[in-house]
């Protein structure tokens, strides 16, 4: 009897196919369930720094046309599993420009929100603030957008290591607390009352005097009140952080921010 020829697969070929399948699966998981986000500006300091790289859970609140790829979700603007909680850090689509933003939810549907002399009032109650030591950084260009931080102790020469911001701990009625920054009296410190409508949310940046958020109308560069259909997902974990102009400059990665929980 003639022996059958047994063809052995090339191990290099098998490895190549395995890698292709693994990368495809990782791409599908990333596209459907998570969205990478790189912090480009300082509007969420001190909790999120320029160069932080994080993944956003796209299904943390449910499905939307902005969190579901390839039109896989129902046509409805949004199917909610749960509502955002006050204090969540959320990525959302700007209703006018279409760009992705990241801010903190402070106002929920039905709330009345205002700021008075920099103090945040929710439903007529002023949030407790605990003063903390100043936040100090170097006044240099940061990230790929080369933004220069503002300082409460201006004038500060470019390159000076003593760029100061006032820092405090803001406490919500649900027990959540987070650090915020302030430069002193500023245009966004006093606002009218905002009545949050059904399916809308009020967002603030933690770096209060360096954030175009819900305090400002969209025609002036702000985000206004954001309808829930524009929410993409909740940010909860920083994977790593780069203080250079690119996330690929590994020698500029911040050693203390690997897998850091977002508060």
What does this structure look like?
- The protein is mainly β and 263 residues long.
- It has a single domain (12-261), classed as Umud Fragment, subunit A (Ribbon), CATH 2.10.109.
- The chain has one helix spanning 11-33, and strands at 34-38, 52-57, 62-64, 78-80, 89-93, 100-107, 112-116, 119-122, 125-126, 128-137, 163-171, 177-182, 194-195, 200-204, 226-227, 231-241, 260-261.
- The strands form four sheets. Strands 1, 2, 5, 6, 14, 15, 16 and 17 form an eight-stranded antiparallel β-sheet that branches. A four-stranded antiparallel β-sheet has the order 9-8-7-13, with no helix packed on it. It has a three-stranded antiparallel β-sheet with strand order 10-11-12, with no helix packed on it.
- The termini are far apart.
- The model has no long low-confidence stretch (mean pLDDT 86).
């Amino acid at each position: 009897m003639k022996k059958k020829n047994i063809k052995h697969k090339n191990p290099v070929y098998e490895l190549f196919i395995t890698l292709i399948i693994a990368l495809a699966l990782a791409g599908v998981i990333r596209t459907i369930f998570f969205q990478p986000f790189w912090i480009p500006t300082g509007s969420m300091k001190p909790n999120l720094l320029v160069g932080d790289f994080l993944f956003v859970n796209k299904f943390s609140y449910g499905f939307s046309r902005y969190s579901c790829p390839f039109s896989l979700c129902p046509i409805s603007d949004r199917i909610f599993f749960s509502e955002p909680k006050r204090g969540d850090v959320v990525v959302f689509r700007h209703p006018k420009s279409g760009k992705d933003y990241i801010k903190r939810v402070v106002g929920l549907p039905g709330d009345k929100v205002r700021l008075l002399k920099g103090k945040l009032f929710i439903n007529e109650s002023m949030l407790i603030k605990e003063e903390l030591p100043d936040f100090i950084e170097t006044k240099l260009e940061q990230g790929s957008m080369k933004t220069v931080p503002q300082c409460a102790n201006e004038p500060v020469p470019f390159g000076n290591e003593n760029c100061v911001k006032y820092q405090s701990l803001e406490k919500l009625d649900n027990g959540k607390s987070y650090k915020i920054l302030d430069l002193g009296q500023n245009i966004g410190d006093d606002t009218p009352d905002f009545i949050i409508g059904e399916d809308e949310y009020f967002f603030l940046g933690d770096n209060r005097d360096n954030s175009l958020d819900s305090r400002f109308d969209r025609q002036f560069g702000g985000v206004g009140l954001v309808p829930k259909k524009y929410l993409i997902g909740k940010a909860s974990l920083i994977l790593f952080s780069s203080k250079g102009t690119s996330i690929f400059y590994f020698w500029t990665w911040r050693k203390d921010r690997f897998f850091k929980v977002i508060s």
